[in-house]
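Inverse folding, one chain.
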């Protein structure tokens, strides 16, 4: 895979992830790490169009790297290539990279993993004006965090509905809180004010409001991938709330907190629910260190999005131009728990 110069460190990780209405062919390969590359599925009428794709990644962490591999596999199967540009969670930097990709004249298609859904709209419009097809990846393109396409210049998108992900977390919290009244919950939010985190939080709150025994006693900002912050947050929470029952997060990095609970002999009291379905998180569920996790499948998600983009580049009709990434896995609506964790194959 080609990589643009100046690629920074990836801090945003961002579930086959999630459940709804994807075709049986895709669902059947849901837990196959390489399923996105099994077939390019793009041999249509415009198959001679060069498959030269720019992938505007939000960050360079392991999750986005797995997306890159998924996109690369599909492009390679179609005789093409992918060049990755990394924005380091900076929407202005991503816009500059978008303009550079367009101006280079090298690309017939652009995959956008938007840092800011709204800020990605001008990129899509500029690309379309230059005859370049655009598909959204993981995060929607438009003023709202929703799966349906909002911008006519966007050919398609395979994205997370973060509100629905939060609702899945809420259902898991309710399960973890059964028999506990009150059930005190701490929410470790990755990035306060970051639209995906806030949408997740809204879905979580909406889901648990029907359970009077559950109360989110405090929210801690912990970032993505910083185990020390998660551990420090839990240390504070255990002092303030000695009867704490559940810790949940829109990130997948709870290892520091889990170890602290183990050291304090509170493993049977405090249950952890993460988001992302990483190998570390999945192993923690299997071992019992973590109650559950919500699976994201970056390789599959990016592979489906890349197939979609190649079809658009070749003038083929997209049967399903807007796909909720949670529909790509049988675990998206239920989450990964110990009884099903052995059948889930993590992709990052």
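Residues assigned per position:
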């Amino acid at each position: 895979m080609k990589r643009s110069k100046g690629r920074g460190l990836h801090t945003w990780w961002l579930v086959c992830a999630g459940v709804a209405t994807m075709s049986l062919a895709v669902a059947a390969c849901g837990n196959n790490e390489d399923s996105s590359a099994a077939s390019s599925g793009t041999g249509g009428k415009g198959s001679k169009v060069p498959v030269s794709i720019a992938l505007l990644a939000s960050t360079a962490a392991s999750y986005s790297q797995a997306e890159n591999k998924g996109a690369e596999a599909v492009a390679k199967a179609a005789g093409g290539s992918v060049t990755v540009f990394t924005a380091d969670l900076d929407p202005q930097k991503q816009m500059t990279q978008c303009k550079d990709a367009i101006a280079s004249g090298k690309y017939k298609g652009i995959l956008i993993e938007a840092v800011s859904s709204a800020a990605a709209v001008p990129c899509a419009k500029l690309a379309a004006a230059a005859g370049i097809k655009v598909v959204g990846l993981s995060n929607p393109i438009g003023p709202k965090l929703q799966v349906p396409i909002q911008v006519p210049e966007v050919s398609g998108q395979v994205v997370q509905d973060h509100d629905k992900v939060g609702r899945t977390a809420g259902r898991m919290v309710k399960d973890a809180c059964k028999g506990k009244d009150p059930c005190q919950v701490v929410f470790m939010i990755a990035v306060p004010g970051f639209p995906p985190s806030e949408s997740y939080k809204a879905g979580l709150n909406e889901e648990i409001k029907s359970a009077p025994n559950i109360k989110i006693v405090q929210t801690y900002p912990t970032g993505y991938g910083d185990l020390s912050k998660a551990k420090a947050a839990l240390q504070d929470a255990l002092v303030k709330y000695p009867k704490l029952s559940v810790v949940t997060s829109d990130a997948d990095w709870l290892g520091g907190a889990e170890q602290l609970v183990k050291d304090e002999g509170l493993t049977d009291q405090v249950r952890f629910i993460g988001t992302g379905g990483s190998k570390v998180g999945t192993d923690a569920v299997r071992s019992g260190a973590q109650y559950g996790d919500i699976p994201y499948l970056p390789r599959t998600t990016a592979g489906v999005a890349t197939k979609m983009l190649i079809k658009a580049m070749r003038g083929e009709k997209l049967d399903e131009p807007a796909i909720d990434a949670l529909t790509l896995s049988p675990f998206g609506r239920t989450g990964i728990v110990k009884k099903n964790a052995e059948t889930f194959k993590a992709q990052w």
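Residues 163-295 form a domain with the Rossmann fold fold (CATH 3.40.50.2300). The first helix runs from residue 24 to 28.
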